[in-house]
Each structure stands twice: as structure tokens, then as C-alpha cells.
Amino acid sequence: MDIAAISGNIATVGYGLAAIGPAIGVGIVVGKTIEGVARQPELAGRLQVLMYIGIAFTEALAFIGIAVGFIFV
After folding, report:
1. What is the chain's alpha carbon radius of gyration, rounded to the nearest angstrom?
2. Fewest C-beta in 10 Å: which of 1, 29, 51, 61?
3. Which pLDDT band holds residue 2 (cuts at 50, 70, 90)?
4. Dihedral, CA atoms, 72, 19, 61, 68, nearest 10 degrees?
5. What single-letter DSSP state applies at residue 43?
6. Per-residue DSSP letters for 6-71?
7. If DSSP codes are grouped into helix, strand and coil, which group holds residue 40?
8. Which pTM does this prediction carry?
9. Which pLDDT does position 3 carry in this prediction?
10. Where is the V-ATPase proteolipid subunit C-like domain positioned along the sequence (predicted)?
């Protein structure tokens, strides 16, 4: 087995594990937004904007994870 193949496989598994965190984070952000809208429907527009900002920051972690995979492989 070639060392490059092993390294590539490890990087793939590493990125898969790194994607779990942002997925959980997005789920929490969306869930809390739904909970907030249920409690105060008049703030739905504001909460939606904040939700999209939170999702963007959370997904940035996934992009950093894939960039690190390209840098170190």
C-alpha cells in the first residue's frame, strides 16, 4: 500500500468527522430559532436573519475543515 493512499484516506475520514460538528451546530441554531419564533412570533423576521448569520458562521467551520485537508495533504 502506498503512503499517499493511506494519507488520502485519513484526510477523507478526518473531514467527515470535522463535518459532524457544524452539522450539529446548524441543527441547534435552527432548533433554537424555531423555539424562539414559537415563543414570540412577532420576532420571526429578526430571528430568521440571526439564524442565517449563525448558520453562515457554523458552516465556516466546515469550509475551514476542507481547507485544512487540502493544505496538509
Report:
1. 17
2. 1
3. low
4. 0
5. G
6. HHHHHHHHHHHHHTHHHHHHHHHHHHHHHHHHHH-GGGHHHHHHHHHHHHHHHHHHHHHHHHHHHH
7. coil
8. 0.72
9. 66
10. 12-72
